[in-house]
Design a protein that fits this description.
seven-stranded mixed sheet; five-stranded mixed sheet; DUF2169; DUF2169 domain-containing protein
């Protein structure tokens, strides 16, 4: 099969098996932009490639969160929004709020300076925060983690802090710095859902539950196909607060407050590309590329948008012979 990319975007064809075990070729298209102070977008001089694997923050740490998610995967049911960066204060503060707004949807976070658990009068409590000017918005700074004997693991965030067998085990240990404003962590008894804006690895909840049942029956009857109860939401990488069931569209507004000294405000651009497929016998199909992944880097004032289109590889008299990514008129 031949592949031609006639656009200025990054593009990559990837052979995969669909949910029914059929061979498909997923064409992934990605555009990278720089955001001006006025919110205008211009193509980046160093566009990001199509990432073929997850990029860990700490590659040598098996509990590390992700810096960037892989772009490889089947079509997504909706759009993921991932924001990569720090909470940035103009002067030292002990606590501040940040927010990501997509259309009318708000995803707020409350960010504290470094703080630890201490032995309080009635409970093991979260101590006061130290001043900060910058705190990374990473899952390592949110509630989660695991006990030393691994008998307690927060599957939604094994990289975090605060999970333990006993409250006394946390005395003197780091406490969560990132939380939802309406669900504060004040004692060791608080076990609120982990918060953040980063991508979720495939072995963390809720993605792991969407894989399906991979037991002995699957091994005997379907492997290497996906389990019969596989949920397409497994492909969704965003934190639940930034996962959209409907595809985002060009013109949808995105604002990020508190992750750079100047607010970041933009409107999503078009992913101005269509994928053309040619089969044996001259039959042709073409499809537009939807926006299914948005990655925002506020400090770098950088935006990535990506989408994918899948065509059956075919067999017998209908075999996929060529794919072309063309710019929209």
């Amino acid at each position: 099969m031949s592949f031609v990319n006639e656009t200025r975007y990054a593009a990559l064809p990837v052979p995969l098996l669909d949910l029914e075990g059929r061979d498909v070729v997923v064409t992934i298209v990605k555009a990278t932009f720089v955001v001006t102070d006025r919110g205008e977008l211009r193509p980046a001089e160093d566009p990001s490639p199509v990432r073929t694997s997850d990029v860990a923050r700490e590659p040598d740490d098996p509990r590390s969160s992700l810096l960037f998610p892989s772009d490889i995967g089947l079509e997504k049911p909706g759009t993921d929004v991932v924001v990569v960066g720090d909470a940035v204060a103009p002067r030292p503060v002990k606590v501040m709020d940040v927010v990501v707004q997509v259309k009318k949807h708000l995803a707020p976070l409350r960010v504290h300076g470094p703080r630890v658990y201490y032995d309080g009068v009635l409970d093991v409590a979260v101590g006061p925060a130290a001043p900060f000017e910058r705190v990374p918005i990473v899952y390592e700074n949110a509630y989660g983690g695991a006990s030393e004997d691994l008998s307690v693991v927060e599957l939604a965030n094994p990289a975090g802090v605060g999970a333990a067998c006993r409250a006394s085990d946390l005395i003197g240990k780091r406490a969560p710095q990132i939380e939802h404003p309406e669900r504060p962590h004040t004692t060791a008894s608080d076990r609120h859902p982990p918060m953040g804006y980063g991508a979720i690895p495939p072995h963390w909840s809720p993605r792991r539950e969407h894989v399906g049942t991979c037991g002995s029956h699957w091994q005997k009857t379907r492997m290497p196909m996906l389990p019969a109860d596989h949920d397409p939401r497994f492909a969704c990488v965003a934190h639940p607060s930034l996962r959209f069931e409907e595809m985002l569209a060009p013109g949808d507004p995105v604002r990020v407050l508190g992750m750079s000294l100047a607010p970041l405000a933009l409107e999503l651009p078009r992913l101005a590309a269509r994928v053309h497929a040619r089969f044996d016998g001259g039959e042709r199909e073409e499809r537009p590329v939807p926006i299914d992944t948005v990655i925002v880097l506020p400090a770098e004032r950088r935006l990535e948008i990506a989408g994918r289109v899948a065509f059956a590889a075919g067999r017998a008299r209908r075999v996929l012979r060529a794919l072309e990514v063309r710019a929209n008129a």
